[in-house]
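# nightly structure sweep
# worker-07 picked up a monomer target from the shared queue
# config: single-sequence mode, recycle default, output format = structure tokens
# input follows
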Amino acid sequence: MFLAAALTIPVAVPVAASESTADKEETVYVKTDANGEEKTVIVSDWLKNFSGEAKIKDATDLTDVENVKGNETYKRGKKDSITWNANGKDIYYQGTSDKNLPVSMKVTYYLDGKEIAPKDLAGKSGKVTMRFEFTNNEKTTKTIDGKSADVYVPFSVVTGMVLNDNFTNVEVTNGKVISDGKNNVVVGITMPGLKESLNLSKDQEKDITLPESLEITADVTDFEMDSTFTVAMTDILKQLDVDSISDTDELTDALDALEDAALKLVDGSKELSDGADTLNEKYGEFDDGIQT
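# output follows
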């Protein structure tokens, strides 16, 4: 068993003063084992050349940088500076990094209430619980109203999986379960670090749910499952329009709207199931490509 995660991080890219600003979107693809431990990490960057500039100046600390969608070349500058000979085109490149991931994941398994290693869970029957815990590692210290406070990058983390008919009575915290008659499609959402960043009072914490973990529980016969998929994004919370929120009720409504929007992912449960099957079939080719 393995878990696949993708972290999407849109950022601005500074370019020369005589040029217009390009946008940069960085996605980190992570293959982990069943416990959530990282095994393979690929960093992919997309420089969006809206103005059709001949050159794009970028900043990256990636090594082994490679253009993956064209023949455009680059030149390294001082420190992390890099200049692409874009020739009016967008640039897609990949590289490797030894930095810690902005969001880390831990998965723990329980059988009939007792913790069990995933390799020992295979083929077992009983009440199974899978607990996904997420840690936001992107924390900075800011001065707010004259006081020092820890602020986290606001990641929204969505986890999805397709469980076969060996799983019955499936339940998920902070999420939704949809059955297509044969499979159960499970989607859950978490927002690690957001509660601490908001510095909520105890009364506010009672009214506002900002989960940093989720649990999937089911009655299982002959435990067996395919991959699970987790996507962590920084731009979902932009939809909340936090500048216009003035009280706890409005924040609660906004977070409910965010959760509803995320859970609409399961409306296409048949497509998700078919897509997961296709991905599993093709994963061998993908893995071979990574090794190459």
